[in-house]
Amino acid sequence: MEKNVEKIDRRSRGIIVITLVKAFLACWALVLLAGWRVRDPLSIFSFAALLALFLHEAKIEKKAAKTPYLLTAALFSLATVLVKYASVVSAFENSLFRLACILILAAGLFLFYAALLHSAYEALACADLPKLLCREAGKSFPERHILLFSFLLLFVLYLPWFLYSYPGIFDPDPINQIEQILGLDLPSDHHPYVHTLLISLFYHIGHIFSSDINFCIGLYTFFQLCFFAFSSAAVVYTLHRYLKLRFGLCMAVLAFYALPFMAVLSIQVCKDTPFASALMLFVCILTAMVTEQRISLPAAAGFILSGIGMCTLRTNGFYAFLLFMPFFLFLFRRDWKKTLPLPVLTVLVVLLLKGPVFNALGVQKGDLVESLHVPMQQVACVVARGRAIDEEDRVLIGELCDYDQIPDRYVSWLADSIKELIRGCNPKILEERKGDFFRLWLKLGLRYPKDYIDAWTGLTETLIWPDGEYEVAVIEGVFPNGLGLESHPLIGGKFLTKARELLLKLGSFVPLYGFFFSMGSYACIMLFFAGYRLQLKTQRRRLLILMPAFCLIFTLFLAIPVGKYFRYAWSYAVLLPFVFITLIPGKEDKKEENA
Q: How far apart are CA 318 and CA 309, in angstroms?
């Protein structure tokens, strides 16, 4: 008996010592991350709070799998270190001290995130989430007609923004598309030509009634607004029908789609808005397939149509779809004869459009520079920092663009500057000597890996880290052009102008609310809930519903051209409400457990 008591005491002392070490390392990491002085009283309070957290975690009975929350913690830690390591080590010149800081930061953050995630996941697992989140469908008009109700409400909320910004918000990209429609420029797939054709359709419909270009193009903007409002309403309907989500929570989702930047982006004429709308419909149909565990004929047709929209309205949407295909086919592998034709037919239609059809229409394809802006940005970073480069490599870079201009043109978060420098010199040589440039890129990457990492994080840190200095949806008006397209507000006044300005600025002023205006927060929230579902071992098939978002984020990691444009993240941000799918079990989960 005494020996057992002694063993327990030793074990308890061991747990206390380990907990103290964990709290100390986590506290040290937070001090480095926050830039506090080591004598700052906040470090003592942080240590006490972290000690409480680790003691609580030590008491949790480890029933669920450890790997998911540890993997999630590792990803969060990696993202934080990649974004923040430069500022953490800036106070030290000694390489050994710098390395020690990075290791302490990584280890402490991993321990902190792991304890936080473990505690949060256990709390979620203990809560009766179905009872909290779901109930039987009500009989009120809004619940019985939630699709129509949600669409009309969003339409009414978006309409004043459209009238204030009539005929819409235009940057240089849609102006170029309109020039193609008017025959002032050659048709090109640099901006998705399917989107150009969509604008052209409404332009020509409007031209039947009026020759005013503002009316004709404004007709497309109105359609875009309605399409986005309908797709958002479809998400609310899907969550209400297939998850039995409480009506109050459905209204919270509706409030999410009514956020000011949603309204602005719904009337900003760009490929991202119809792409986001098509993507929402695609995931709605996917949700019906996963929860019902069957593929009806309407669902199959919707999958193909929305999939075509996903693949043709953004280039990275096509790559995201290809990444998604294996996961979809694996989940429905038992019924592969019905499921295999859906993604295959979608891809074939897209290839037919982008190949023979576009060739017949004389549509120019996007150049190779557009596809390789991340490697070009990495090479430019090496040049801009004055690293030693062999003369042969300098000559090769000089054949592509003006070597001496690279340091002045390089911007860490903007790849467009280097792209335009190359386009203004000799972009064709990139296609002629692809092998030579690949060897150059690989050679410099092996020699200067830190520069390559910095160049990549300069473009992607806003995707993996919630904080960042950039404005969201403040764009307004029409980019100057010679087409006669210009801003003609149908409603206005100082009150409306100030109200619009205030609603958008609150995102950088109000805590918590401001996270909705952050690109990185959406990826972090989705990763958090995905880790929770993985940890429970069951119901993992529901993660397929979040896979389009994760595949899209992955493609942006490889090819985002501008790190501070919120619209690049908007397409997966609108999928945030689908995290409810990871919290609510359904009848298909019972089938999985019995299988």
A: 9
Residue 480 and residue 257: Cα distance in Å, rounded? Answer: 30
Q: Could you give the CA distance from residue 161 to residue 23 in angstroms, rounded to a whole number?
A: 50
Spatial contact of 235 and 577, defined as CB atoms under 8 Å apart: yes
| Cα-based torsion angle of the residue sequence 140, 237, 289, 573 in order, rounded to the nearest 10 degrees | -150
d(CA 317, CA 334): 27
**SS3 category, 177:** helix
What is the distance between the alpha carbons of residues 524 and 333, in angstroms, rounded to a whole number?
Answer: 30
State pLDDT tens for residues 424-472: 887 788 888 888 999 999 999 999 999 999 999 999 999 988 988 888 8
Q: Is residue 117 a contact partner of residue 531, using CB atoms and an 8 Å limit?
A: yes
Q: Please tell me the pTM assigned to this model.
A: 0.92
- Spatial CA neighbour of 568 closest among 458, 473, 469: 473
All residue ranges of the chain with pLDDT < 70 are 1-12, 61-65, 136-139, 141, 493, 586-595
**What one-letter code names the amino acid at 488?**
H
Place of tokens 């179905």: 130
Strand blocks (E) in 423-509:
none
Positive or negative CA dihedral for 381, 386, 388, 391?
positive
User: Which CA distances in Å does 318 have to 59, 195, 310, 337, 416?
Assistant: 47, 14, 7, 23, 21
Strand partners for 414? 411, 562
Measured CA to CA, the distance from residue 529 to residue 463 in angstroms comes to: 17
The C-alpha atoms of residue 25 and residue 379 are separated, in whole angstroms, by 36
DSSP 363: P
